[in-house]
Amino acid sequence: MKTIFLAGGAGYIGSHTAVELLNAGYEVVVADNYSNSSPEAIRRVEQITGKSVKLYEADIRDNAKLKEIFRENKIDAVIHFAGLKAVGESVKKPVMYYRNNIDTTLSLLEVMAEFDVRNIIFSSSATVYGESNPVPYLETMQRGVCTNPYGWTKAMMEQIFEDAAKADENLSVILLRYFNPIGAHPSGMIGEDPRGIPNNLMPYITQVAVGKRDHLTIFGKDYPTPDGTCMRDYIHVVDLAKGHVKAVDYILEHSGVEVFNLGTGRPYSVTEIVNAFEQVNGVPVPHEYGARREGDLPQFFANADKALKLLGWKTELSLEDMCRDSWNWQKKNPNGYRNSD
Ligand code: NAD
Ligand code: UFG
What we know:
Helix content is 40%, strand content 17%. The chain has helices spanning 12-23, 39-49, 63-72, 87-92, 94-114, 149-167, 201-209, 237-251, 270-281, 305-311, 319-332, and strands at 3-7, 27-32, 54-57, 77-80, 119-125, 172-178, 180-182, 216-219, 231-232, 234-236, 257-262, 268-269, 287-290, 299-300. The two termini are 32 Å apart. Bound molecules: nicotinamide-adenine-dinucleotide and uridine-5'-diphosphate-4-deoxy-4-fluoro-alpha-D-galactose. Uridine-5'-diphosphate-4-deoxy-4-fluoro-alpha-D-galactose binds at residues 85, 87, 125-127, 151, 178-180, 199-201, 204, 216-219, 230, 232, 270, 293, 296.
């Protein structure tokens, strides 16, 4: 049985990926410093799957600790989720973002080389396409000019991986460019658990719906889109997690560097998301229209043909599924994992 190491695996996407990897028959080892997560997520992964996960509390920048983990486990592939991801915070604390995100990557590459682990899959983002590429985004497009330090860390880390793989033909890399993950596991046991005021749309909507926040502000109504609000390629986190399983299957059989968009290829506007959420769940989401948020692009979405062709992956879940599962998670866990810590 092959063992996959999830760096930052207790987080939102990592925990869902752990479920799908375990269901697919992989062994899973997770390390996380819980800077934005809780070990409870992994306990619930174990409950959902009936399988166990080897869990380490560790900072991925800590080479000594990483070596201990690599010594204790025969790792076949790494998935690197460990990063800070709040765009606005990255503008205020750029050094913290560069330090955390770049250092985790360098430590993983160093320790992987020492232990002859040859496969790494990286959580990148559609943000690397920058401001000027036309939509839909294609993997062959140049990385663009990013609008914030978070985006730059992703672009820089992609470059680091490409350079490392160029210098070491034994190193295989898959860069996964996620679009906008929302939703939760259908059990309602794991989901997105932001700390403080959510930055992202869906957790904000669910917190308004559950009564924790008064109303949603929709940022901008004068964009060049059919209803004037921004459009994004929202992807169900379970579809995204299954994309990681396909990427693991692939990297264990192929060498080199590959980049894949993971999205649906179908954008929805903010207003469409709010309306869909209200209709699917039968709950109101009080909202008003406000000013544009700095750095937001009017519209972007994926061309996901390459993932279908090479990985045999495409999304299966609908916007209705995304809205229902997000709400199910929020309703069952109004305070996220906090009551369980
Ligand atoms: P998340 O914050 O839920 O998960 C990231 C995890 O990494 C957290 O559990 C956090 O505690 C951990 N972590 C951070 N720094 C660490 C360190 N130095 N050592 C150990 N653990 C550390 O975020 P997520 O939504 O699951 O995102 C996972 C990855 O995907 C991130 O790299 C993120 O940038 C990327 N991504 C996310 C989105 C999104 O919208 N959610 C979009 C594109 C890319
Ligand atoms: N939005 C609102 N009100 C809110 C929150 C968001 O109207 O309270 C709008 C935004 O203006 C945007 C849309 O909802 O039009 C989606 O916003 P999110 O913050 O959920 O997502 P982004 O598209 O801004 O960013 C996400 C991730 C980034 C990643 C980027 C590209 O958060 O990490 O997608 O992949 F870089």
